[in-house]
């Protein structure tokens, strides 16, 4: 390689490494935006370590010493870890049903061309326009007829019919899975369900990971559904138990902040683990779109 060419390459590398003012402005703005987003979570955790008198009398920015006392008061009146277990069962099973049946339904709409396919698909999408609160009336009636009221199944089974999951996964299938893959499996003698389970589902992993996070967070934070369909305290998930703290302690904000902080902690962990999957899924959709 000639010296002139090497000098040109070195100049381009040096130029590419030079930080532009516009990039610095963007980075500073993003850092400030991240700080603004993190402050409410930080304050929630900090307030959970202070007494009610400290929170009511002054502005607090540093952790206090009342964390153990607040935790003891909370566990003496509500079974917070039972609520964790209930939320984990409800959110985990609901997410699994949403992903499997959402993928199965979306696969049918995307790859099976039958009469009324588009009309039925648009009908499914139209159900997304119905507020969740209105759907609870019908859900309550169905669960009453099935004798499933005051059970976790009343919250888990409706997750199998998730219109947003069908729409999200169908868009992913349309953009990433060619018909030739399915035809090849059929030529090799694979059944329709075997093709779906062995070939299609693994290919849907990025979309399922992103959708799984949304479904898990939505089910974990669900407050109205358990409030209507559950009647026993020992079956309550975390959002309802945190609400009970307000009834027990009145204005004891330290205990309430600690309860809220514990309830959102699993969501932050799940998001931290699978956040790269969300970005990857969005990037794939952007390229194919």
From TrEMBL:
Protein name, per record: Carbohydrate ABC transporter membrane protein 2 (CUT1 family)
Membrane topology: Multi-pass membrane protein
PROSITE patterns the UniProt entry points to: ABC_TM1 (PS50928)
Protein family per UniProt: Belongs to the binding-protein-dependent transport system permease family.
Biological process terms in GO annotation: transmembrane transport
SUPFAM superfamilies in alphabetical order: MetI-like
Subcellular location, record wording: Cell membrane
The organism of origin for this protein: Desmospora activa DSM 45169
Keywords: Cell membrane, Membrane, Transmembrane, Transmembrane helix, Transport
Entry's transmembrane regions: 24-45, 84-107, 119-146, 152-169, 199-220, 254-274
Domain ABC transmembrane type-1: residue ranges: 84-274
A GO cellular-component term linked to this record: plasma membrane
InterPro entries in alphabetical order: MetI-like, MetI-like_sf
